[in-house]
Specification:
heterodimer; A: about 675 residues; alpha/beta; Rossmann fold; 3 domains; 6-stranded mixed beta sheet; elongated; B: about 180 residues; mainly alpha; 2 strands
Chain lengths: ~675, ~180
């Protein structure tokens, strides 16, 4: 697949029709499109994905140019469209995706319609023809399956995630896709034709053509064998799923463990913050209780306390004046008169005019009020005694409580400051408790998956065995019948052919994989000159191997550079292999050249590495299209100058409008 | 006196209402009740030499019910006697002051004395309001003013009056 032209119509900041042609000249196969940050590099890269698969990474899923949307009148319509011309398998295709936007009568944008997806191609007579609507998705899959597209439409900012995918946990589809890119699909198609689960495969169709008339059990056995096959297939599928789930859970565990060790301080800090917050609450409540206590003391004793000086002055005057005499406390002239009028005393003695009791009471009158003030003054002195004691410590109490209230301000500020300090340290730290909980969940998930896999493996074996016996039983029966014997012979031929082809395929596949490993390693060593090498397993997972003997420590380089190098090497390796296998004389290996479309690929590299990358890519890929910011772009152009066949510039008019101009 | 309802009136009523209002969310008040102002104010009025006429400028008034006055009559009488004994400006003759303090109370003769006492109550309300309430914007201000007021009073008068010296005088007065 080679990309020829891209036309954008009202796509995001690309207002109006904006065409761009990519260089397809084999000697000058690089197209460089430069632009400052925010000018539309990523948008252009996403235009490919949108056109081919109808999806983008944008958060705002509206593709319509904001500048166009602003100028639309109520009830007006506008189209967003991306056309991509490409050549695949010698055929000229145009891939078109279109979406209609409209405004309602109040002038707000309605939800856009579904996108319309079309593929046209130039027929043998030069006429342009449409791929039938129902087949477009299938055709797209043939041209470039989505799983692989991200390796060819490559976003420098998503590199971390991609490198993980490449290094581990790849699905079977990925391996299949790589194999097909490497030209092994003819093999796999032949193998599938001979023997697959599909009822139209050669061996299966023989299985179904046994003459059941000779023995009813043949049909029954065939049915049972089918059932076993179904079970086995279900188990195999589930096992593949388990493998994926395990990889994901394991990744999560690793990630969590890393975080937990990184954030282990957070637990201590969280406790400290809790303690300080409690202290803060303690301060608030002690201020409140001190306030209440202060006011209570004040209300209770203020009079006594403030009257102390007055008491002292009054007592001084009274003691100087000698106004105290021996009265009977609280007895008034009125009391005596009452007793005399009543005729008997408190003690019960009769009071009659001029008797003894009467005389005694009349004497008392001299010592009690109103004639004598002695007892009233005595009462007053006793009051002074009590009150001076009551108010004696008021000022000390109030001072103590007020100190708490006054210090609150500074104490509070101090604690608050400490909380802020702790919180600053806690910023960006995650709660370890939560992480631990997650980790436990994932670990038990892993354990569960392992148990499930062990059980499935056992079941798998038992079904295989049962199937084997049934196949043998059926064979015994079929050999008894002439027709069936013939089928058995044809089947044996087919199986033989399958085995031969499979051997051949296995060998080729291993060779191809080895070759790919070598190619990838060659490129990797060129880009990343450290003591690392790469190896590929049977699922095309990339493993990084440290070559200790070369004396390099893998930590010398930043891991990001390592990871990007792995990706580059892998993609470049696959593309180079795909391109080379085109020239292979063996007709069983057929493949396509592929372009490499890269968005901001160099930002993570230093100058030297940019040079090696720039040197390597145009040699391995048939076509290279790079979106790049000015500074990196100048470097890239210096290093790839000879190979650059087309140059464009993003001219940013404003936030909503960018124009593509030729340089 | 001290056995029937008492009312603060006019500006003094307004001040008492403010001094017995909550100043924070915890329902804290400088004075818990009108009675607490009434018990404390005459001492302050006398000590600061402040008296004030009855303010009839507006109809504002706030009351103290007789039950509490009767219940706390001893404390109120104590105030009355202190002031009567010490108010030299009002009555220069000590023996007559003693009569006012102990003998005349409750009789028609005491009418002007009770007026005098009430004017100290109102003067005290003015002093308390100036000292504690004025210029205060929040609860911290109220508490600060209250404490400053007490501190000032302590420095000015009470630092020289120990409880022991009062107790000694009590003994002396009885001997």
């Amino acid at each position: 697949m080679l990309l020829r032209n891209l036309r954008l119509t009202n796509f995001r900041q690309f207002k109006g029709d904006q065409p761009i042609s990519f260089s397809t000249n084999p000697d000058r196969n690089v197209t460089i499109i430069m632009g400052e940050n925010g000018s539309g590099k990523t948008t252009l890269a996403q235009a490919f994905t949108w056109c081919l698969y109808g999806d983008t990474d944008f958060e705002d899923k509206s593709m319509l140019s904001k500048a166009v949307a602003q100028n639309m009148l109520p009830n007006e319509e506008a189209n967003v469209r991306v056309d991509l011309d490409l050549v695949h398998n010698g055929m000229e295709y145009t891939i078109i995706r279109e979406q209609r936007y409209s405004k309602d009568s109040s002038g707000s944008l309605r939800r856009p319609s579904q996108t319309i997806f079309k593929i046209t191609y130039k027929g043998s007579d030069g006429q342009r023809e449409f791929v039938p609507d129902l087949e477009t998705d299938l055709r797209m899959k043939e041209i470039l399956p989505r799983e692989l597209s991200k390796y060819f439409f490559f976003n420098g900012e998503r590199i971390e995630k991609m490198s993980k995918e490449i290094r581990r946990g790849k699905s079977k589809e990925f391996a299949e896709a790589v194999k097909s890119l490497l030209g092994l699909s003819a093999f796999t198609a032949a193998l599938d034709h001979l023997k697959s689960r599909s009822s139209s495969s050669v061996i299966r169709s023989y299985d179904n053509s046994y003459n059941a008339g000779s023995d009813a059990r043949i049909a029954q056995y065939t049915k049972e064998i089918d059932d076993f096959d179904d079970e086995i297939e279900a188990i195999t599928r589930r096992l593949a799923e388990i493998e994926n789930e395990e990889a994901i859970a394991q990744d999560k565990c690793d990630e969590l463990e890393e975080k937990i060790s990184k954030f282990k301080d957070s637990e201590v800090l969280t406790k400290e913050r809790e303690r300080l917050r409690n202290k803060l609450n303690g301060l608030i409540s002690s201020k409140a209780s001190s306030t209440t206590a202060l006011l209570r003391s004040f209300n209770k004793n203020a009079q006594q306390y403030f009257a102390k000086k007055m008491m002292k002055d009054a007592l001084q005057r009274l003691s100087e004046a000698d106004k105290l005499d021996k009265g009977i406390p609280d007895i008034h002239e009125r009391t005596i008169k009452f007793l005399i009028d009543r005729g008997f005393c408190i003690c019960g003695n009769k009071i009659v005019f001029n008797n003894e009791a009467y005389k005694e009471l009349m004497k008392v009158l001299d010592y009690i009020p109103p004639q004598s003030l002695g007892s009233l003054i005595g009462q007053f002195v006793r009051d002074c005694e009590l009150k001076s004691k009551g108010g004696s410590s008021l000022f000390e109490e109030v001072s103590e409580q007020y100190r708490v209230i006054r210090d609150f301000e500074t104490d509070y500020a101090e604690v608050e400051k400490n909380i802020k300090l702790v919180e600053q340290r806690l910023v960006n730290m995650e709660n370890v408790g939560e992480l631990q909980k997650d980790l436990i969940n994932y670990e038990s998930r892993l354990k569960g998956l392992k148990t499930e896999r062990d059980n499935l493996n056992k079941e798998h074996g038992s079904y295989e065995n049962k199937k084997k016996y049934k196949v043998a039983d059926r064979k015994e029966l079929t050999l008894k019948d002439e027709t069936n014997r013939k089928i058995e012979v044809y089947k044996a031929y087919a199986q033989y052919m399958y085995d031969v082809l499979f051997d051949d395929y296995t060998q080729k596949e291993a060779e191809t994989r080895n070759q790919l490993q070598e190619t990838v390693n060659g490129i990797f060593k060129h880009i990343y000159n450290g003591g690392l090498s790469l190896s590929l397993d049977e699922n095309y997972n990339v493993n990084i191997i440290v070559n200790d003997f070369e004396g390099y420590n893998s930590d010398v380089e930043t891991s990001t550079a390592q990871r990007i190098s792995v990706i580059f090497a892998f993609i470049a390796g696959v593309i180079k292999m795909a391109r080379d296998s085109q020239n292979d004389e063996n007709e069983m290996l057929v493949s396509e050249p592929y372009p490499l479309v890269m968005d901001a690929p160099l930002s993570a590299f230093d100058k030297t590495r940019i040079q090696t990358v720039c040197d390597t890519l145009p040699k391995v890929a048939e076509q290279v299209i790079i979106f790049i910011k000015d500074t990196d772009g100048e470097l890239a152009e210096t290093y790839m100058g000879q190979q650059v066949g087309a140059r464009y510039l993003f001219e940013k008019k404003n936030e909503f409008e960018t124009y593509l101009v030729t340089r | 006196m001290f056995d029937k309802e008492y009312s603060f009136r006019g500006s003094h009523a307004a001040k008492v209402i403010k001094m017995t209002a909550s100043f924070d969310q915890k329902n804290n008040k400088i004075f818990a009740r009108n009675f607490d102002v009434y018990l404390f104010a005459p001492i302050v009025g006398f000590m600061y030499g402040r008296d004030a006429p009855l303010d009839r400028e507006n109809n504002e008034k706030t009351d103290i019910f007789p039950d509490i006055l009767i219940r706390e009559k001893n404390d109120l009488m104590f105030n009355y006697r202190l002031i009567m004994l010490l108010d030299k400006e009002y009555e220069p003759d000590f023996d007559e002051r003693i009569n006012k303090a102990f003998r005349y109370y409750g009789s028609p003769k005491a009418q002007p004395d009770e007026e005098r006492y009430d004017s100290y109550v109102r003067g005290g309300v003015d002093v308390l309001y100036e000292k504690i309430m004025e210029g205060a914007k929040n609860s911290d201000d109220y508490l600060k003013n209250l404490f400053d007021f007490m501190e000032e009073f302590d420095e000015r008068y009470n630092s020289n009056v120990s409880t022991d010296s009062i107790l000694n005088l009590c003994n002396l007065a009885r001997s």
